[in-house]
Automatic annotation (TrEMBL):
The keyword Methyltransferase applies. CDD domains: AdoMet_MTases. This is Methyltransferase. Keywords: Methyltransferase, Transferase. GO terms for biological process: methylation. It comes from Dictyobacter alpinus. GO terms for molecular function: methyltransferase activity. It holds the Pfam family Methyltransf_25. Residues 42-137 form the Methyltransferase domain. It comes from the Bacteria.
Amino acid sequence: MDWIKPFYTKKSEWFGPSGVLDHHRTRAASIEKFCGTGPKRILELGAGAGGTAAAMADLGHTVVAIELSSLRTTYAKALAEEPRAGSLTILEADYYEVNMAEKFDLVCHWDSFGMGDDEDQRRLLQRIADAWLAPGGCVLMDIFSPWWWAQQAGKVETDNEPGLTQRYDFDPIGCRFIDQWWPTNDQSQIIAQTVRCYTPVDLTLLVKGTGLAIELLEIDDTPIPLSETSTMKHALWNTASYVAKLIPAVS
């Protein structure tokens, strides 16, 4: 996973701070639907430039956000200095290594689950269950759907505003998407990330034995029953990710 810090640092150099965008606020608002009303103690893993963490704090939650990249941490700390209805604390750390005594009502992992291999994901889920999740708490994660990413393979897009080009690819053996970026006028600066995608059944197998269990899978307010069978018409074929809600497993 040595690529993670330099990839996101360089990408953030190119894009700059994002602030708090509409999709950050939409994501923050979904917490009430998944986890109930009232202020919560929230831990966000891989918080990036802090947009979602700030949006959650704006709703009155007490948020601790962990980010590996120094540059993205700087962007997030600037947001933490602004007045919020709740509170926002930013930690520059590796969430595989950082130790915290505090327990949280919600641990969330947006847009980045799947970095590393399956054992890395299990190790992280076990840390969440054993070290950070309060009794009665839950976990919310975005899970990348392999079918959408496989369909993007070979696509090249150019974003003229920051002057960047993006190329999609897919590894069908490892079930990983490959996401490459470079300045449009200088491909020698290319950077890439590779992230594991999980079908609902794959995710079920991954979670077993970690101390967590799947309570709900959902795409755009539509549940994905694990007992159902489907065809290519299923929404999973046409969405980049779905939401998983995990809770402590029953012994």
